Fold N-acetylmuramoyl-L-alanine amidase.
Amino acid sequence: MSVLSRWKARLRVRRNLLRAARRRHEANPTPESRRVIDDRKEQVAYAERVVERHDRDDRPRIVNLDLKPREGSQLSPQGTLRAVTGHYTAGPVDQTDEQCEALLRGYDRAHKAKGWTMLGYAFAISRAGTIYLGRPATAIGAHVLNQNSGNVGIVCNGTTGDRPTAAQARSLRWLLANAHTDALPKAWRVDLRGLPVKGHNDWMATACPGSFKRMYTSKGTKR
Ligand SMILES: [Zn+2]
């Protein structure tokens, strides 16, 4: 258990104790029951500060590519979420975050040149673990033939034979657990907790996402 999850558990316990103290005070208010509430409040506030600090330390770098739909095209709302699907780009891996960003912008341009709306994936993760925001996750993506609605696309640079890094797996794990929080801008805030995470080749015959699949389907706990 990580320090963060221990403190999250502690925070839940302390909130319950505070609620119980308030109930006792309402039933039978005394100076002592008032004092217990104040103590409990302080303990909750302390745990909240610890959790908040660890949450921040734990958070990967997040870069909004700030891509826009092609002139004259429009995005549609995502609808009920049903799955997350992992991909590779079938191109080179990124050696630096600068290269990762350049590759992603290149794919966005190439997709628009084909008449598509914009980069089809909501999220990309660099080998250094940086999370890139592509197409808004609250809009329908374009990454699996005929299976895009309610399906959030994540991509890593690389192709068959390439393997994910530990940083990539860590950031995927973080993203799946925290995409609903205000760590992300509103257009990418989606609750991915509890959704099945599939590889592209679970939907159709394709080599994608190659050796990245284990990382995706294990939700970043293996690679
Ligand atoms: Zn794919």
